[in-house]
Amino acid sequence: MKRPPEHDEPHGAGLGARLNWLRAAVLGANDGVVSTAGLVVGVAGATGDRGALLTAGLAGLLAGSLSMAAGEYVSVSTQRDSEKAALATEKRELQETPEAELAELTGLLEGKGLSREVAHEAAVQLTERDALRAHAEVELGIDPDDLTNPWHAAGASFLAFTVGALLPLLAIVLPPSALRVPVTVLSVLAVLAVTGWWSARLGEAAAGPAVLRNMGGGAVAMAVTYLAGHLLGAAGV
User: Could you tell me if residue 7 is inside a domain?
Assistant: First the structure.
């Protein structure tokens, strides 16, 4: 799988990877907040029983976190398989057509702003040192010693979702009955404002629209599920 070249800044690839992990963690926590809040507020619309709320919240937390972990594991495993396949293809090409691969590496380095002569000399030296690594990093954007780890991704997604889901779960079961929904709604909106601001900052975008979208989406989710729960509870379902 060919990737677009990364920015030519020192440690750019490592920094980009860390930002991607952090962004994924923020979004995972955000999903945990919204989905669990919608679930428990919906149940609260139908019943004020603390046991029912706790059961629903825990079930939603476990189902959501395990689903996120499984999905991330499958996704990253596919990415890792693609990276391994790309490296295997590159290794075979280096063995079968080394001159063409040297010319290709020269062209890639020239495309980064080097003169033809300097690019050729750099390609020769990189090839002599470690041809596969040179092509993996310059052509594919892959570090052969640091392939994506599906277990790390799954664990991070599970943890992020769980941390996010704990807030609405605690907010709905700890306060007195009359305050459960208001406390949950206000707590969730406050957290969504923070995660919206943080995700915008990571993406170097305007914070205001991101915060409003995040809070608006969460508010709509809670309003719809509460109304549905209230109607079903009133109907005796």
Answer: no
Global pTM reads 0.74
To 5 degrees, how large is the angle CA 221–CA 227–CA 232? 125
Count other C-beta atoms under 10 Å from residue 205's C-beta. Answer: 11
What pLDDT, on the 0 to 100 scale, is given for residue 19?
59
Rounded CA-CA distance 105/74 in Å is: 32
CA 53 from centroid of its chain's CA atoms: 28
Domain membership of residue 67 (yes or no) is: yes
The C-alpha atoms of residue 1 and residue 76 are separated, in whole angstroms, by 13
pLDDT tens, 105-122? 888 888 888 888 888 888
Q: How many distinct structural domains can be found in the chain?
A: 1
* Count of C-beta atoms within a 10 Å radius of residue 140: 18
Quick one: pLDDT at residue 17? 56
The span from the CA of 127 to the CA of 109, in Å, is 12
Mean pLDDT value of segment 38-51: 91
Identify the domain containing residue 100 by its residue range. 15-234
**pLDDT exceeds cutoff 60 at 195:** yes
Contacts of 3 (CB under 8 A, 6+ apart): 140, 141, 142
pLDDT of residue 20: 61
Q: What is the 3-state secondary structure (H, E, C) of 37-97?
A: HHHHHHHHHHCCCHHHHHHHHHHHHHHHHHHHHHHHHHHHHHHHHHHHHHHHHHHHHHHHC
pLDDT of residue 236: 65
Q: How far apart are CA 120 and CA 232, in angstroms?
A: 72
Residue with tokens 């790390």: 152
pLDDT at position 225 is 93
